[in-house]
Amino acid sequence: MTKRLFVKGNEAVAMGALEAGCRYYFGYPITPQSDIPEYISREMPALGGEFIQAESEIASINMLLGASACGARAMTSSSSPGISLKQEGISYMAGSECPGLIVNISRSGPGLGGIDASQADYFQATKGGGHGGYHIIVLAPASVQEMYDLTMHAFDLSDRYRVPAMILADAVIGQMKEALDPHPYKAPADLPPKDWALTGSGTREVNKVVKSLYLGVGELEQHNLKLHRKYAQMQEQEVRCEGYELEDAQLVVTAYGSTARIAHTAVRIARREGYKVGLLRPITLFPFPKQAYRDHTANGQKVLCVELNTGQMVDDVRLAVPQAEVDFYGRAPGAGSLPTPEEIFAQIRLHCEVH
Amino acid sequence: MTKRLFVKGNEAVAMGALEAGCRYYFGYPITPQSDIPEYISREMPALGGEFIQAESEIASINMLLGASACGARAMTSSSSPGISLKQEGISYMAGSECPGLIVNISRSGPGLGGIDASQADYFQATKGGGHGGYHIIVLAPASVQEMYDLTMHAFDLSDRYRVPAMILADAVIGQMKEALDPHPYKAPADLPPKDWALTGSGTREVNKVVKSLYLGVGELEQHNLKLHRKYAQMQEQEVRCEGYELEDAQLVVTAYGSTARIAHTAVRIARREGYKVGLLRPITLFPFPKQAYRDHTANGQKVLCVELNTGQMVDDVRLAVPQAEVDFYGRAPGAGSLPTPEEIFAQIRLHCEVH
Amino acid sequence: MNHDVFMAGFGGQGVLLIGNLLAYATILEGNNASYFPAYGVEKRGGAANCTVVMSDGAVGSPVVGEPEAALLMNPAAMEQFYPRVRKGGMALLNSSLIEDDGSSRSDLTLVRIPANEMALEIGDSRLVNMVMLGGYVEYSRVVARDALKEALKEVLPERNHRFLPMNHNALEAGAAFVREALA
Amino acid sequence: MNHDVFMAGFGGQGVLLIGNLLAYATILEGNNASYFPAYGVEKRGGAANCTVVMSDGAVGSPVVGEPEAALLMNPAAMEQFYPRVRKGGMALLNSSLIEDDGSSRSDLTLVRIPANEMALEIGDSRLVNMVMLGGYVEYSRVVARDALKEALKEVLPERNHRFLPMNHNALEAGAAFVREALA
Amino acid sequence: MANRIVIDEELCKGCGLCAVACPHDLIEMSIKLNKHGFLPAVISADAMLRCTGCTFCAQVCPDVAIEVYREKKA
Amino acid sequence: MANRIVIDEELCKGCGLCAVACPHDLIEMSIKLNKHGFLPAVISADAMLRCTGCTFCAQVCPDVAIEVYREKKA
Amino acid sequence: MKTEEMKQVFARPQALNPVQTHFCPGCQHGVIHRLVAQAMDAFDIQGQTIGVASVGCSVFLYGYFGIDVIEAPHGRAPAVATGAKRVHPRRPVFTYQGDGDLAAIGTSEILHTANRGEPITVIFVNNTTYGMTGGQMAPTTLPSQKTSTSPYGRDESKDGYPIKMTEILAGLEGTAYAARVAVDTPQRVIQAGKAIKKAFQTQVEDNRFAFVEVLSTCPTNWGMNPLEANARVAEEMIPYFPLGVFKDVSA
Amino acid sequence: MKTEEMKQVFARPQALNPVQTHFCPGCQHGVIHRLVAQAMDAFDIQGQTIGVASVGCSVFLYGYFGIDVIEAPHGRAPAVATGAKRVHPRRPVFTYQGDGDLAAIGTSEILHTANRGEPITVIFVNNTTYGMTGGQMAPTTLPSQKTSTSPYGRDESKDGYPIKMTEILAGLEGTAYAARVAVDTPQRVIQAGKAIKKAFQTQVEDNRFAFVEVLSTCPTNWGMNPLEANARVAEEMIPYFPLGVFKDVSA
Ligand SMILES: Cc1ncc(C[n+]2csc(CCOP(=O)(O)OP(=O)(O)O)c2C)c(N)n1
Ligand SMILES: Cc1ncc(C[n+]2csc(CCOP(=O)(O)OP(=O)(O)O)c2C)c(N)n1
Ligand code: SF4
Ligand code: SF4
Ligand code: SF4
Ligand code: SF4
Ligand code: SF4
Ligand code: SF4
Ligand SMILES: [Mg+2]
Ligand SMILES: [Mg+2]
Predict the structure, then answer these.
(1) ipTM score here?
(2) Nearest CA residue ID for atom 5, ligand 8
(3) At what angle do helices A341-354 and A257-272 cross, to 10 degrees?
(4) Is H182 helix (H, G, I), strand (E, B) or coil?
(5) CB contact under 8 A, H134 and D43
(6) Measured distance CA(G241)–CA(G103) in Å, rounded
(7) Domain range for E24
(8) List of domains in chain G
(9) Which residues of chain B lie closer than 8 angstroms to A92, CB-CB?
(10) G103 DSSP assignment
(11) Strands D2-10 vs D69-72: parallel, antiparallel or unpaired
(12) Which of C154, D64, C132 is closest to A340 using CA atoms?
């Protein structure tokens, strides 16, 4: 067994990325994610890769596009305002089917807001904050270990589908330290070769083009339908979530990332007090684990969705299970608005008693 | 009666804005909206206002922020990729409660995509494409006249709530020409004074600050809750939609903007053929006319949502009426994918027969 | 009153201008009309087409899948759009450039008009579009030719008003041709 | 085993370091722990606090509303966080700086430890944090002091290993003080 | 001198830049539309005799529609 | 000469820049923490007598903690 | 005499596909494309080169050059090229950008890419307007020039001054070669060809950043015929945008 | 002698609120704030001035100056200021920006604002690092300087060269005044005060664009005490970033 390390969530992302063979990092400083570029700037030279501190978030995402188009595993990371600036670039990457990893260690907004944790970028991440109706893969780690594991997984998914992937975490998961088992990366045997990637046309007959412009009648529609078929396929094959104490639960608490961690303790408290409550934690936010909600509300269970925002994922829950009673408990993000386990437990009690 | 003019949708936006007293325009060229800056660059000098062709979309939105913070009616316009670039700025405007008009004459994507009409920016517009979980007012004109009228209305709403407003149209509504009754602007008598606007502190004791940074414990949460109270108030007071042949309709077709125009003809055809079908057209996309859907599906009516995308507004419809049967017909945007009335009529027939 | 017409041709043939004129004239007569152009990324040359929808009520869709009438000004337009004309509708073909005799369809009113030759005869090859428009209006009666002439006056810059008579002649010639063809 | 502790003080008092140490030591012993710091925009000075949650199972929330134990190192921390300690829990107050005698609550175990004086006595005023940590571990028994020492060796850069004995002394002194206080 | 230019009339867009560039004024614009609707550049057999093969016409042609040949030196 | 500087000990963050800037080395750092936890700059009464009122200390003070006074010219 | 028996002294370059472009008649994007292709031929690098297309009338690069191409978002070609170059440090990478693209929205990217000394070649086509979107005012639009968004002529006091990118970039330490050329006369075309070749050489042989600004026409949006447009280059553009090599560290 | 009876020769400026700043000990943002306040006092414009804060350690402008303030997104202060100035053409408007803000993410905005000759004043604080976010490499970071993202020292060959904004902006026609100053000695502070005053004068009296770069310290992120940090300005920064007035059209 390799030694368990004790590292920050942000560092785990960086370690996972390097372990997964990412050799190109492009980023711009912003709290609370700067540990990622800092870690990578230290480690990358020895690995022979490239670390560029770009002049802006926009330059970063476009460097990523360029590196990705050339077939490299590459990444960028930022936090909410910086991610907003990348929306055009993300849309281009989605449109030109460039894989690549975008990390959002989300902070509170809108605007400059604050540097505390927030889950208010859920819509932006999952619905396509950029123009054009694309989607990207969105993974929501809830532990330092998952920061590492899901970063690797994100590269695999992204390469497999040629769809950009995002790690969506926040200041809690990014700044906390926990044990990490840094197991080695194994590439899935069935990853398709990147035969579309640019290398200089060499002696090939046909030059390779990475682009998102489609002007001929019907071309762009077909292209969009192709993208949407990939999304549907991911919905079939790539959904991940985790359950805790769900077997006999009458109330299903649901939350992702940092709030899932907090809710986990709240459920533990509630179980101790005899409440029949469990936790359903989506790990993939896009594709969204709709079926799991259907399964766990099939017998009239109620759902309580907890978010560190004013209500975003709850829409996807409601769309997944329109027949179920779905309630919401949220805190608008900002300094001091992280809910405590006790607070969520109080909500659980309320929902178990009232309903 | 003033003379009916025959103008482009884009020009009507420009005319409406100038008529509503907008004297500051900041923008960057992009098809299919460049008629707006072109019109304004011709007319503004005589009105003593300022037209700036900025170096980028990002500069434009930030000039808008600056002008708005100083109390001016001001605007920017662009199309999808350019609107993506403005997301950080829009989030800042939302966070610092700066009113102002953003026009999106949307085109097909993702990425560079094409210049044909698209409704695939619905999520971006209504859910907050930028970070931080804010909302902006989103109005969806469906005629040249509405391009004029709703532009004026957008300024009023934006000033009233100190929430940025967007006109969300597309290449169809922007490029088509129709009759326009250019009635004069009347400011609502009860518009609140802009006493928050910066003027140079003068002899005031306290300086005025327009900002979105809130670091104290609880401050940002309170600020966010305040913003959400405004959204709730708009939901109460500012919802607009239009019905057509809804009285005895058993199938409610719903669509906004360009597709609503097309659906209108489809419904006319269907009525001619004896189908009991009507059209519900949201005019405000945020706030969304939830109640209208509830009212018109109260007796088991079915809904068919038509969009020039792969399904966005339909989510809001489903969230509004979870008990109703809501179907979707969409075309992925691109050259040649604008649906025809005949095509939508075929869908209507299908839904009336099958269900 | 509900009418719609589709027009297509080369970039330089003035298709967009007559679409504009028709819609504007309709409005001048107190009815409603929409004009919707197809526009491309290319600035010069290429294809041009537009749709005009006219109604005494509200204009619904500014685009139509199967137009009631079509003005087709060159072979490319013919090939692409002729099949889409509504059953029972009407097609006006510029026979100066379109060799296809339209016989593939018998379910519509077909008029083949040698618009280029007629235009040249009137005095300017650029009047092809006016000839075609005159013909369409004669067929559809959707607007009075006087409304078209008024619209033309408003649309043309003052300095070009000396060309008005020639344009009127083209409208009339087109109308006369169609009148005769349908007689 | 499920424990959680909250620590707060001045920026310079080494609160974050002992939080790290405690969590790391827990992990070295094969259990799980999370360390969650509060971090501000200011680089120097200001307040610092962190939460450590320890468990032999999965660590749930890295934040706690009502910590089981609190290490409060200055008056500001006392004022803000003393009321939040869980009923039946424990508070370790640095009595060198905190005048408040903690008598406002009788529902928890309270130890007042003159950590600054003790640290100076051991030889370095900066050892306050180690004194406090030693005390907490003695109370909670959540990790062995040896694990702490091992963790410390890993955390301190090689060149500072000469300070290890002093740190050990501080841990032991804190532990002894609490042992006595609770005896 | 036996030099020669070859104008690809279907590539030519009739801009006339070559005609202006030719130091000997050898190129004219056709009065017959090509299949793209342009009036292409042409050179008469007569004019060709005076061509120096200087390549100026080809240098300025935006559509790379002109090739230039010179007599091989013996 | 009777010139005078006034150091606001609560604004001072003890950076020491003033001490370095004073051409006559008149300013020292206190050994007593102020309420923000800094060791502020101080000037002894003795040193004050040698102050030229040149304002150098104040010029470089990042915290604008120093005021300088000169004797009014008669 | 048959051409086969003659010596071809001017031929379509290898790297330029034998297809008709979508450019308007007389648009000098065509000449500049040819010169770029010729430079690739000169170093026999067509098979290795990666082109980065920008958004503007030259967006269809991939249709005209027989090379691999990435289409960059508007203004971001230098950043995209940076990503590509870092992955393929031994492949020649170039961007081809208009003045709207490079000197307006892409200001930051070009400046920092040059400043990093990124070993790429940048071809900058300055036609004093936004060609593709219909002739709006560009950062390079000349004083008093009328465009669709400066209908009364560019007013320097409010719209700013035509920006001289070559001069700015020549001032950066990362830039190894910076030149401004025109293609309005055969002689200048030949000069321009040399500069473009040199800009590729700077990358291929010296592994450094090179920049060539080419003054170009947009007859369509200038409202001129190709000959008038071409004449304007010498009459109005060159006086404001002086030609020359502004930096050449190898010189 | 009581101070009341004396002549005060150095006082806190009127426009500077009597509060403690959040700046680290020895951070020269404090000195620069004071000089800006003094310039406002000099023209008696505190009551009219609109300040535009940037994102960086100086974001809390509104807490320190007794003036109206807009907080701009990172790098966009010049664009925000442009919007404000067009609305209030007779109000003095200034931005206060760090080197990360102005010379990295905000490159395009500052360049085009200067180029437009926007009549605002820009105070640019160059401390060769991103102070607020914890000392990452900035575009102005010196060769070989170690930062949290250049742990082995800035490598010009990959990271680029420290960028000289004053020189670049001085080259633009829109710029009326451009100077670089330092505040590491009393004499230079006085010089810097004059430059900042002149930069306000350029706006207030000549209605033109003015720019002052101030070399400043970041002891915290440089890992130095305030005195070492201050010494580094003369030892390392000034040799690379020469002081002086690079442009003054009124001169
Ligand atoms: C983000 C974004 N903004 C604007 C546009 C619209 N647009 C397309 S091309 C272009 C500019 C073209 O001008 P230039 O770069 O000078 O190239 P030219 O066509 O003149 O060769 C613009 C603004 C876009 N596609 N994306
Ligand atoms: C879009 C965006 N990107 C990044 C950040 C994070 N950020 C905050 S301040 C700052 C830079 C500060 O450096 P500088 O401008 O040099 O100012 P200093 O703190 O050194 O005075 C950065 C990158 C942000 N707030 N917004
Ligand atoms: S090669 Fe020279 S001489 Fe011959 S046609 Fe061309 S320009 Fe004229
Ligand atoms: S320059 Fe080329 S395109 Fe223009 S006329 Fe001559 S051959 Fe034709
Ligand atoms: S005013 Fe001059 S002499 Fe007096 S203390 Fe300050 S620096 Fe020294
Ligand atoms: S310069 Fe100012 S802050 Fe620094 S020690 Fe002197 S008085 Fe204190
Ligand atoms: S619009 Fe202008 S730049 Fe574009 S192809 Fe035509 S002439 Fe060339
Ligand atoms: S971090 Fe640096 S720039 Fe920021 S306040 Fe501290 S010393 Fe000043
Ligand atoms: Mg251009
Ligand atoms: Mg800085």
Answers:
(1) 0.97
(2) H23
(3) 60
(4) strand
(5) yes
(6) 14
(7) 4-69
(8) 29-248 (3.40.50.970)
(9) 110-112
(10) I
(11) parallel
(12) D64
